[in-house]
Design a protein that fits this description.
Helix content: 25-40%
Largest sheet: 8 strands, antiparallel
Oligomer: single chain
Number of strands: 20
Strand content: 25-35%
Distance between the termini: 32 Å
């Protein structure tokens, strides 16, 4: 069945020749083999939260929505066995009932877990890697239609699978490292930029989750649905979000900006799909210089730079294509306004952050070249060799990924 696919913000769209929504590993194998017989390329869709054309295919589009839910839990090892099509938002309640929780989450919880893992989606805090870092095993239907199980006994394969952008094959099930359930205490404040930067590194290390939005103009806050305190100005100020673990006995509170609740109820915020985002990762030790340079650049480029600058941190991890491979990172998120020619602006941002040895978020806008891939990702060549083993004919590549990974 042919059709058309569009992502959540409408900046990526394509027509595909075939569509399948398998409900089991066996049906995935059948769909992949049928596509191979037709000489079709294959990509897997999720909720479409990526801004890059990583889903695009003119062949078979696979939808794993029916391979969903928590299949089993090991409370002693704190592991959860999950279907690839499970939304992150669907994990909170059932894990909590088993005394468990995800270690960390990002601003949005509507993505499917396999997509979040495959692109290195993340939250904030140097104690935690991305979603990819909690993958402990998975089953993948490869580019030859075979099923391969990857686990901690095959560390190179596991580190390749942790951030694979769907290039190894179709991930149909996974084992995740979770943790004991916990509550979070929220502390959200409106602060001058200078105050936030005065002890930036101390605040990153002191708090479980520390992040902020910096506003370059008076119109910036409303673009991300952020309400300022009465009478406060937005320009050159920050919306600072701090989450720390609450005592188990602490009462749930819904006081705005000071909530206390189950972890998975505290993390998410609401975004309107009114932005197209670039997100780069630089070594955390260079954070202050980088943030100051971005602030100066954005102030000079209004109104193209009207969207808030989001700043987070992320912990070191082992995934070969992870933006946080073997280093703690500063996460810098910059957005362009749909309907506006923001490309020159974002290319300048790319040049600035490139001087800080920036790596990219695979689901966000970027300008990474093949040379930069090999310069900035120490295990790129090893990943490419494993990709070829799993998909020798490149059926899981597309026009966006092929220039970087079809070596």
């Amino acid at each position: 069945m042919a059709g058309k696919w569009t992502n959540w913000v409408g900046n990526q769209s394509f027509k595909y020749a075939s569509y399948a929504q398998p409900s089991s590993e066996k049906e995935v194998v059948k769909a992949v083999k049928k596509a191979l017989e037709k000489k079709q390329n294959i990509r897997v869709m999720a909720t479409g939260h990526s801004f890059t054309p990583i889903v695009e295919t003119d062949g078979l589009l696979l939808d794993l929505a029916k391979i969903s839910g928590i299949k089993a839990v090991d409370p002693y090892k704190q592991r959860a066995f999950v279907g690839s099509g499970t939304p992150i938002s669907a994990l909170g309640d059932p894990l909590w009932e088993k005394g468990l929780a995800l270690r960390n989450q990002g601003d949005i919880d509507s993505q499917r877990i396999a997509g979040a893992i495959s692109t290195g989606t993340h939250g904030s805090g140097t104690e935690f890697g991305s979603f990819s870092s909690i993958l402990r095993s998975c089953r993948i239907v490869t580019g030859t239609g075979e099923v391969v199980e990857i686990n901690e006994k095959t560390p190179d394969l596991l580190h390749a699978a942790q951030v694979s952008v769907g290039m190894l094959g179709v991930m149909v099930g996974m084992e995740l490292q979770v943790t004991k359930k916990y509550k979070l205490r929220e502390h959200i404040d409106h602060e001058p930029f200078s105050d936030v930067m005065r002890n930036f590194h101390e605040r990153v290390k002191k708090n479980r989750n520390f992040s902020f939005f910096w506003f370059p103009s008076e119109e910036s806050a409303a673009l991300y649905n952020i309400e300022l305190p009465p009478g406060e100005k937005a320009t050159d100020t920050c919306h600072v979000k701090v989450f720390n673990e609450a005592r188990e006995s602490e009462q749930v509170s819904d006081v705005p900006k000071r909530r206390v609740d189950r972890s998975y109820r505290i993390y998410p915020m609401f975004y309107s799909p009114n932005f197209h985002e670039l997100e780069y990762f630089i070594p955390l030790e260079r954070a202050v210089d980088c943030i100051n340079e971005m602030r100066e650049y954005m102030l000079k480029n209004l109104p193209l730079s009207i969207f808030p600058l989001e700043i987070r941190s992320c912990g070191s991890e082992d995934g070969f294509l992870s933006s946080n491979y073997k280093r703690e990172t500063l996460v810098v998120s910059v957005s362009g306004m749909p309907g506006v020619d923001y490309w020159p602006y974002l290319r300048e941002v790319d040049q600035i952050l490139g001087r800080y040895d920036a790596r990219v978020h695979w689901g966000k806008l970027h300008f990474l070249t093949k040379q930069q891939l090999h310069d900035r990702y120490p295990k790129a060549e090893k990943f490419i060799k494993i990709r070829k083993q799993f998909d020798p004919k490149g059926v899981f590549l597309n026009d966006h990924l092929r220039p970087l990974f079809a070596q």
